[in-house]
Amino acid sequence: MRRSHGSGAFFSVHPANRGRIAPPAQTHYLRVTRNGCAQMEPYPLAAGLQKQTMTLAEIRDDFAFLDDWEDRYRYVIELGKALPEMEPALKTEANKVRGCASQVWLATRAENGRLHIIGDSDALIVRGLVAILLAIYQNQTPDHILSTDAREIFAELGLKEHLTPQRSNGFSSMVERIRADARLAAQV
Question: Three-class SS of residue 122?
């Protein structure tokens, strides 16, 4: 399981290595996947420096290893830090998501029958929620997006009961925005 300590860096605690802490200077940790295979993965902090986005399967696996809400909260913030920044030219009123306490922008384009989404926010926790949405919906067909319930995944990850109602409403607004874009793309 991975844990975060006060500096925001993560360390790896594999069941066979309990109590051994990987120094924050290392850039990778050993991840044990659901099927028991081991693989080296970049630390979330290192991934943030490289601006890599996570897949939904990776996020689910990481959430399964994090025991308490504070660790999961810090992890969502790390996802937000790893989210590539949106070009300032895309931060327009047209791309702004209504119904969010923080400022959130989502820009969607359709290409080859799939939607490509770019998102950003002025709050790190919300950027992390955007990263989770991108893991769910990025490069999917409009039909897939419309048939996938991100709110169900949000609840499955344990986020629903731990975020404020304002953040949960903002998440729902982001989901509705992406679904509206998928409905438009499906009509084309």
Answer: coil
Q: What is the DSSP letter of 140?
A: B
Specify whether the CB–CB gap between 132 and 76 falls below 8 A.
Answer: yes
Q: Which of 45, 34, 5 is nearest to 21 (CA)?
A: 5
User: Which alpha helices (H) appear in the chain, and where do they start and end?
Assistant: 44-50, 56-65, 69-82, 124-137, 142-147, 150-156, 165-187
Type of residue numbered 78: E
Beta bridge partners of 121: 104
Q: Provide the annotated active-site residues.
A: 100
Beta strands in 5-130 (DSSP E): 10-12, 28-32, 38-42, 104-111, 114-121
Q: What is the pLDDT of residues 97-111, one digit of tens each?
A: 998 889 999 999 998
pTM over 0.85? The answer is no
Burial class (CB in 10 A: 0-12, 13-18, 19+), 127: buried
Q: Which structural domains are found in the chain, ordered by start?
A: 2-187 (3.90.1010.10)
